[in-house]
Design brief:
The protein is mainly alpha-helical. The protein has six helices and no strands.
């Protein structure tokens, strides 16, 4: 990314705090903005999609949804393995889980970890690996 693109991305990411939540208040009464919406989605689905083989497709959709939101709502402009099972185990339990352990208090809580900006770097990388 160029410096201008990084600045645009940063502005768009911060702007998400100023856009009202789209989540049903009955489901997430404390959701106030678009950042809260993505945190709620992760909290609500963490137990479902982690450690059961759904990490890659779920996070691909999750990252895509956020990027789409950044572009549309905000206006912001391998590991090698012998088998897919080995790859999944390495990615899920080594790269993914271990990375969360170093994110601080929000990173340690796998439900609310989208509160940490580094979460998006980690999960963008997971999505990139899956696309290879």
């Amino acid at each position: 990314m160029s410096e201008a693109e990084r600045l645009d991305y940063t502005r768009a990411a911060l702007c998400m705090y100023t856009h009202a939540s789209r989540t049903d208040p009955a489901a997430a009464p404390r959701a106030r903005n678009r950042v809260d919406d993505f945190v709620y989605q992760h909290i609500n689905q963490t137990s479902f999609m982690h450690q059961d083989g759904l990490l890659l497709p779920w996070h691909r959709h999750y990252i895509w949804s956020r990027e789409k939101d950044l572009r549309e709502t905000i206006g912001a402009n391998l590991m090698q393995s012998d088998s897919i099972h080995t790859f999944h185990r390495l990615l899920e339990f080594m790269a993914h889980f271990q990375s969360h352990q170093h994110l601080g208090k929000d990173g340690m809580d796998t439900h609310s970890t989208p509160n940490d900006a580094v979460f998006w770097l980690l999960h963008g990388q997971i999505d990139r690996l899956w696309s290879l």
